[in-house]
Design goal:
It is built from ten helices and 14 strands. Helix 2 runs antiparallel to helix 3 and helix 4 packs antiparallel against helix 5. 45% of the residues lie in helices and 18% in strands. The protein is α+β, with helices and mostly antiparallel strands. Strand 8 and strand 9 form a beta hairpin.
Length: 391
């Protein structure tokens, strides 16, 4: 059985909204206090404070008179936020993420409820300390005979409420084999280029949304910070951001699902996106392209539906290698979109050639487990030996 989260929009009553906002406020306070304690402990005494210590601190905080309001909300989301903080630090120490940031009220908030903090009755969800079920807009049905294991409530900066219900879904089964294989090269001008010669660009509606966002941000800059009109302008900007995010997510889900359904093997490049966004000229374009989200969706969908995903090392020279004779050119600037091989004279479209090389490397890795870096490594080693002074 596969764990899957189903996300729905819901409309809370006034009573539910007040309780949920207070819960998220308490979650934000506990998270920030625990983060401050852990940061202070490290900088003052090089001490790593873990989840167990912060959980004990939470018990002490609840006994303080000025923090007595922490007892008015469910204790489960407060404990869960400490676990999430522990996960954030684990990822930081493993160099998979940046140092955890303090939560801000303007970013909305979230609260995670486990089985002891909610009830599921006849398709209705009751949260702890709520008398009425959530008014959920069921855009699709949950799998039959499934009981939620975790429920996460999220408030977006735009003011929209969402509930994410985690269940074990037995309906997800491997898809039939098609016998097709494909290599994918991601880019900025075209979101992806396949080894079949197909190029997929971002939908044109994004240009309109970005122009709309620019107008709203310009209007926000004119408002007095902290004023009521400033808050209204902030909401307008947040709503446009939500539209862009929803459009991106919907587009990527449809694209990745089609790729997984149509192909048995998908080869992609394992890009070092965190390093690439350090280039300030390309950072926004790379972030807007959502390469990381595209790769993430391909990864879990291939696992769900029994397809194979092969990741090629980002040092593999897929763009500079001639797909016909294998010659590797020394330099190939980004502004050159077509080039001719100096050895065999074959004319290449940069992106299509790269995707075909990625597919060839992916097949080599899939069939015989071959590495795709030895040639690159040897060339670097040879260059280093040439530059080394003779004794």
């Amino acid at each position: 059985m596969t764990e899957q989260a189903y996300r729905f929009r819901f409309y809370p009553t006034t009573e539910q909204e007040n309780l949920l906002r207070r819960t998220m406020g308490c979650v934000r306070l506990v998270y920030n206090k625990a983060l401050a304690v852990r940061t202070e402990g490290w900088y003052e005494g090089q001490q790593r404070i873990g989840y167990t210590q912060t959980s004990s601190l939470l018990t002490e905080w609840k006994k303080q008179e000025d923090l007595d309001f922490l007892n008015e909300v469910s204790c489960v989301p407060l404990q869960q936020c400490l676990r999430n903080l522990q996960t954030a630090f684990t990822n930081f120490w493993a160099k998979r993420a940046k140092y955890p940031n303090f939560k801000k009220k303007r970013n909305g908030g979230s609260a995670e409820f486990t089985k002891s903090a909610f009830k599921w009755r006849d398709g209705r969800l009751f949260l702890a300390k709520c008398k009425q079920p959530l008014n959920i807009v069921w855009s699709r049905f949950l799998p039959q005979d499934c009981y939620p294991s975790t429920v996460t409530i999220k408030l977006e900066p735009s003011g929209r409420w969402f509930v994410s219900i985690l269940v074990k879904d037995s309906s997800i089964k491997p898809l039939p084999k098609t016998g097709k294989k494909i290599g994918i090269d991601v880019g900025i001008t075209s979101l992806i280029t396949t080894s079949n010669g197909e190029k997929v660009a971002n939908p044109k509606q994004f240009n309109f949304l970005y122009k709309k966002l620019k107008r709203k941000q310009k209007a926000l800059s004119r408002k007095t910070k902290g004023s009521n009109n400033g808050y209204k302008a902030f909401l307008e900007v947040a709503k446009v951001h939500a539209q862009i995010k929803d459009a991106h997510t919907d587009f990527l889900h449809k694209l990745t699902t089609k790729l997984v359904r149509d192909n048995d093997l998908i080869a992609i490049e394992d890009l070092a996106i965190r390093n690439m966004v350090k280039n300030h000229k390309l950072a926004r374009s790379i972030s807007d392209a959502s390469w990381a989200e595209f790769n993430r969706q391909l990864e879990y969908k291939c696992e769900w539906y029994g397809k194979k995903l092969v990741k090629i090392d980002h040092y593999f020279p897929n763009s500079k290698r001639c797909g016909n004779c294998g010659h590797i050119v020394d330099k190939l600037p980004l502004n050159i979109r077509e080039w001719e091989c100096p050895e065999c004279g074959t004319n290449h479209d940069r992106d299509i050639n790269a995707s075909q090389n990625i597919l060839a490397a992916g097949l080599a890795v899939s069939v015989c487990g071959a590495s795709v870096r030895p040639e690159e490594s040897k060339s670097r080693k040879a260059t280093a030996l040439k530059q080394k002074p003779k004794s």
